[in-house]
Every structure is written in structure tokens, then in C-alpha cells.
Design a protein that fits this description.
- Helix content is 57%, strand content 16%.
- With 99 residues, it is α/β, with parallel strands linked by helices.
- The chain has one domain.
- Helix 2 (17-33) runs parallel beside helix 3 (50-64).
Length: 99
């Protein structure tokens, strides 16, 4: 099981989409392709932008569908991060059902 520490990459305010893209391309997607579960550790991250979360997880949802959420653990998320993840997941689910 891979654990990705978001704070180490993005700091207390995760806003840089390039960092999110890098995490997605080099760690998240390859691990999912190997069918390995992943922990996205948001410990010490106070907030993020919706675009950061979208850049981080939307491709996984697009490629693997809602089932991928059983492979990704969102660890130590405060209420703000939980809400942002929920918004992105809902948005992606709506997009998948309208196709």
C-alpha cells in the first residue's frame, strides 16, 4: 500500500495543480494500474483548492469509475478537505452519468 503525504509536496495550502498532476501521474495512477490501494495523507494540510483536488483524483475516477474510491483512502482530512473531495467526486459522478 502506497502512502502519499500531501503536506510534504504541497504544504499547508494545497493549491498548485502542477504538484497535483505530478502526484497523479507518477504515483497515484501507476499504483492504481497495479491494483494497489493508496492512502492520500492530508495530515497538516489546512486547505486546498478545488482545482488541486480535481487535478489529483479526477483522472482516476474517469478511468476506473466510482469503484476506485474503494482503493483510495483520504486520510486525516479536515472538514474543508472532505468537502472539497466530495464536491469533486460528485462533479465527476454527474459527468459520468450524463455520457
Amino acid at each position: 500500500m502506497m502512502q502519499i503525504n500531501i503536506f510534504e509536496r504541497a504544504g499547508v495550502f494545497a493549491e498548485n495543480k502542477d504538484i497535483a498532476r505530478s502526484i497523479r501521474e507518477t504515483e497515484l495512477m501507476p499504483s492504481l494500474a497495479r491494483n494497489e490501494p493508496i492512502i492520500l495523507n492530508f495530515s497538516h494540510v489546512n486547505s486546498a483548492t478545488q482545482s488541486f483536488i480535481h487535478a489529483l483524483i479526477s483522472d482516476a475516477l474517469r478511468k476506473y469509475g466510482n469503484d476506485v474510491l474503494g482503493k483510495i483512502t483520504f486520510h486525516k482530512c479536515n472538514d474543508t478537505i472532505k468537502q472539497l473531495v466530495g464536491i469533486v467526486v460528485d462533479y465527476m459522478q454527474e459527468g459520468m452519468t450524463t455520457k
